[in-house]
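Batch manifest, entry 17 of 40.
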Amino acid sequence: MPATCQVHVLGRFTVSVDGEPVPGDAWRHRRAADVVKLLAVAPDHRLHREQVMDRLWPDLPADAAGANLRKAVYYARRALGRADAVRCEGRLLTLWPDGVLDVDLDRFERAADAALASGDAAQCARAAAEYRGGLLVDDRYECWVAEQHEKVEGRYVALLRAAGDWERLLELDETDEQAHRAVMRRHLAAGRRSEALRQFDRLRRTLRERIGVGPDPETVALYESALTLGAAEPPSPAQLAAVALANGLVAFGRRHLAEAERLARQARVLALDADLGHELGEASTLLALVAHARGTWHRLFREEFADSLRHPPRPEVYDAHLCFQEFYLYGPEGHDGAESFGRDLLGIASRAGSPAGRALAYLLLGEFALLSGHLDTAVATLGRSLGEAERAGCVSARSLALER
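Output type: structure tokens
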């Protein structure tokens, strides 16, 4: 009866021969395991010698790579307990040619192909269950694994979409907006309006923190409809601000700058009136983006900076100012005019008696001195920024001043 070799490449790499697991210490020679892995995931479980050599020893001359391959094949055969476990025939290497080879990746791909072709959600869910984890998770960052891992995971994602398993999709990728929308719709269909609104907040926060964008128009429209659907009370200021900010980012992405500015200012007023720190910081960021796109960044930043000092200190607004100040210094336009601009901000902050404002202005001046090669001035000015930041309790400015 032909011997059976089972190879698992989804998740952690394991091998069994006739039901007996190959012990981990049998793979002491790592390249022996790599040869088996390569052949297990290859079409028909065979590759040309040159393909294996190029993937495992790309920087070695052909003769040295060939010697390494012969050694790896020898140890692979020893680990699998058969001289014909890896056949070398001409220039071709084949895994387990004379027995029954069962690779979990093959089973998953067959099930995925059949399920996706059928379009049946239940069948797609069953096929997705065959996916036991990423391809060769211990080798994820090897060049020869990364490309194929992406293809296999793409097949898994397609199955989850077809099965409507949106929660598992979000476990894989929190920025998947289609999945967030589907979860929102599911909540709304079940009468769980508050859960749908929370899902939108989660999406908005994730997109902002991970990739610096806002939800797309379809998602914003769904959120707006959820706000009014069966609501006993009108939307809260936080919810209205979220709508304004999301639509403002959509307008900015379409280069409708006047509309983006209008919505940012609307969100800013709502945030100020309701003491919404995060929303106020986001509105300030959107206003700065619009001003930068128009070439009016200095004027708007000065106005925003001065206005912020007339209100109680807000870390979110301060961090937004700090972020755009850093972009100004290290962005593509260079730092021309930074010294005079920094002194202008310092004067505004000093007249307002604001340690937080002085910390930001001194930081700008200190970084400008550092970039200009004036090290003594930079050390002294950054020290002033550090002192003001500690007085104001500005963690971000303190950290940045210390780093510089």
